[in-house]
Amino acid sequence: MTTAPPELELATREALAGLLLSVADDEFVIGFWDSEWTGIAPMLEEDVATSSIAQDEIGHAKALYELLADLTDDDPDRIAYGRDPSAFRHAALLNHARGDWAFSVARRYLYETADRARLAALARSSHEPLALVAGKMRREETYHLLHADAWRRRLAEASGEATTRFADSLRRLWPDAQEVFAPLVGEDTLVRDGILPEPMIALHRSWLADVRPILEPLTGPLPEKSPSADGRERRTDDFRWLHGEFTKVADSEAGALW
Amino acid sequence: MVSQAVARSAEGRVWAELATIPDPEIPAISLVDLGVIGSVSVDDEAVRVELLPTFVGCPAIGVMREQIGTRLASLALAGRVEVEISFDPPWTSDRITPEGRERLRLSGFAPPHIAPMAVSAGLDELAIVTVAECPYCGSTNTTMENPFGPTLCRAIFHCADCRQPFEQFKRV
After folding, report:
1. Domain range spanning residue B123?
2. Does B124 touch chain A (CB under 8 A)?
3. Are residues B83 and B120 in the same domain?
4. Least CB-CB distance to B56: which of A45, A63, A146?
5. Which DSSP string do the residues of B48-97 spell out, in sequence order?
6. How confident is the model at residue A258 (pLDDT cuts 50, 70, 90)?
7. How many CA atoms, within 13 angstroms, populate the side-chain half-sphere of residue A239?
8. Do A45 and B90 count as a contact with CB atoms less than 8 A apart?
9. Domains in chain A, ordered, with CATH?
10. Which of A148, B18, B105, B150 is most buried, judged by most C-beta within 10 A?
């Protein structure tokens, strides 16, 4: 892969590393939560779809961990499988266990719409390797968003228990969904250098403008909540369990190649 | 120093060799017809190939890389073979050659629909063109059953005329 231009200042490199880690961890963790549906989704088509989406997301994480490893002279597999749960930087939205189907759809919808806003910005990044990967990811994410949106409609229009469960899940996840846009360490530097073409708070506003009018007829008014400084630092028992699952193979034979 | 003419003919040999390497997931089509070879260059030191993944997380990339390495090394054109993964330009389904599209069709895959893909549409105007021509009977009276299929790059359709399920190489 392409090596980062050596002229990046230390502070910029550190901030860029934080940005790459945040996006990569989001994709990695949601990919593993999705993979929990493999074999037990409500129908065969969804078994195939969630498994395929999970594979895409983990593939995106891999590409981003590789960019990060180039930047920090690290090993992508170590970053993915060799970290303590506390070192992960995914948004609080991704801390929750898979839950029921309505909960998974609610989370996927919130995440995909937020990810769409973020990727649109990253595809314009002045850091070319990131812009290229983000541009390529966007084409695949269109399918994910379409899938999430089709299920959003289906559950919203189903009435009865399906709709109630979906609306409850959206209300429950709403505060943590804001944290996809949690401020990054060194964000001012990233914005100044065009690596992050828009500050997180601006991306947050445009995401809210997109999703509020779609969700509120179903959920009622969704509370105003700004992304918090520790929105990517909180970890839960649910996540620690998932971490145990996805590191199990790597831990069973240190240094093995697969 | 390799002269330009010699380098060009060496590059021609590399392209010809790559055209005989099948895609690991759909062996009916070669890597060249699939459009995943971004560029080829040959000098005294190395044969360099840029490989453009169809999907960022395509699990066949490792296999492709290995096969390219082995096959090109056997041509003995330079000291080593370097296969670089690149997203510049990004692979899109429009890179599949006309021959590749025909080969896909002959092996029961609908080739991807050619049309610009809206990646920036608003949330309320999201649409993926779900058009595919049945590779068996040529009918367009088909429906997309699932935009996700057995591999990342395949979608599942059904033909209402010949009642045959079939796969489409996804448009991205």
Report:
1. 108-169
2. yes
3. no
4. A63
5. EEEE--SSTT-TTHHHHHHHHHHHHHTTT-SSEEEEEE--SSPP-GGGS-
6. low
7. 23
8. no
9. 10-221+232-252 (1.20.1260.10)
10. A148
- Kindly indicate the confidence band of residue A1, based on its pLDDT and cuts at 50, 70 and 90: very low
H helical segments located in chain B: 4-18, 31-34, 61-73, 98-106
Instruction: Please report residues of B whose CB lies closer than 8 A to that of A132.
Output: 87-88, 90
In chain B, the residue whose alpha carbon lies closest to the alpha carbon of A114 is B123
State the Cα–Cα distance between residues A107 and A115, nearest whole angstrom: 12
The predicted model scores a pTM of 0.92
What is the count of structural domains for chain B?
2
DSSP, collapsed to helix, strand or coil, labels residue B109 as: strand
- Among A52, A141, A144, pick the best mutation site for testing chain B contact (most B Cβ within 10 A): A52
Q: How confident is the model at residue A139 (pLDDT cuts 50, 70, 90)?
A: confident
Query: Binning pLDDT at 50, 70 and 90, where does residue B2 land?
Result: low
Handedness of CA A79, A81, A86, A92 (dihedral sign): positive
pLDDT, tens digit, for every residue of A5-29?
557 899 999 999 999 999 999 999 9
Q: Does B136 touch chain A (CB under 8 A)?
A: no
% residues pLDDT > 90 (chain A): 88
> Mean of the per-residue pLDDT values for chain B?
89
Q: What is the CATH number of the domain that holds B13?
A: 3.30.300.130
B67 touches B27 (CB < 8 A): no
Q: Measured between CB atoms, which of B87, B128, B152 is closest to A146?
A: B128
